[in-house]
Specification:
7 helices, alpha/beta, about 200 residues
Length: about 200
C-alpha cells in the first residue's frame, strides 16, 4: 500500500463534505491507518470544524509497517493507542505505564486516553469534566482465547467513543470498548457488533 499523501483536491473534498454533515452529527472518529489519507492539514481542519459544531472527537493512529503520528490529534476528547504506539510517540521504552499514559495525554492535550495492552487489557488516564485528574485505572482482557484479533482495536475505539459521547465517563467507556473488543476477537473476520451482544455481556 502506498503511504503517499492524497492529492490536495481529495483533501479539500473531504474537508468540504465533512463541513456539510458536521451540524447533524454528534461524534467524529479519526481512525488513521497512516497511508496518506488523514494528512496533518486534513486532520487539523476536521478537528476545527468538529469543535465549532460541538462534536465529541476520538482518534487513533496505527503504527505497524508504517509510522503513525499521534501528535496530529491534539486537543481531542479520546485517543486509543497501543502501548507500542504510545511509547514510540514519546520515544520512551522504559518508563512505567502510569507515567506513559499521563505524559502522552499531556503532550497531545487529550481529555482521555485508553492505552491498549493486547492480552493484558488496557489502562486509562483522563481528566474529569471539572478539570480534576482521574486516577490511573486498568481493565483486564475479557477474552483470553481469541480466535482472530483483527479489528479488536477498531471495535474498542468505536464502542468507547460512542459511549463517551452519550456520557462523559471514561471508565464506563473503557468497559464498553473492552467488551466490544472481546466480542470481535471471538469470531473470524472483522464484522459489525450488535449492541445486544454488548448488553448481554454487561448483564451477565
Amino acid at each position: 500500500l502506498s503511504q503517499d499523501k492524497v492529492s490536495n483536491i481529495i483533501q479539500n473534498q473531504m474537508i468540504s463534505e465533512f463541513e456539510k454533515i458536521a451540524p447533524d452529527i454528534d461524534l467524529l472518529i479519526l481512525s488513521d491507518f497512516s497511508y496518506g489519507v488523514l494528512t496533518n492539514d486534513v486532520t487539523k481542519e476536521l478537528i476545527k470544524i468538529a469543535k465549532l459544531n460541538g462534536l465529541v472527537i476520538a482518534a487513533d493512529s496505527q503504527t505497524s509497517s508504517q509510522l503513525g503520528d499521534l501528535s496530529q490529534f491534539s486537543n481531542v476528547d479520546l485517543v486509543t493507542p497501543t502501548e507500542t504506539e504510545a511509547r514510540l510517540e514519546l520515544k520512551d521504552q522504559v518508563s512505567g505505564l502510569a507515567f506513559i499514559a499521563d505524559k502522552l495525554r499531556s503532550k497531545i492535550d487529550s481529555k482521555s486516553i485508553i492505552i491498549k495492552l493486547g492480552a493484558d487489557g488496557l489502562v486509562i488516564n483522563g481528566v474529569k469534566p471539572d478539570g480534576a485528574l482521574l486516577s490511573l485505572d486498568a481493565l483486564p482482557s475479557f477474552n483470553l482465547n481469541p480466535v482472530d484479533v483483527s479489528g479488536a482495536g477498531d471495535s474498542l475505539l468505536a464502542a468507547a467513543s460512542l459511549a463517551i459521547t452519550i456520557e462523559n465517563n471514561l471508565a464506563k467507556a473503557a468497559l464498553i470498548g473492552s467488551l466490544a473488543a472481546a466480542i470481535q476477537i471471538s469470531r473470524i473476520g472483522n464484522i459489525p457488533i450488535e449492541k445486544e451482544k454488548i448488553i448481554s455481556l454487561i448483564q451477565k
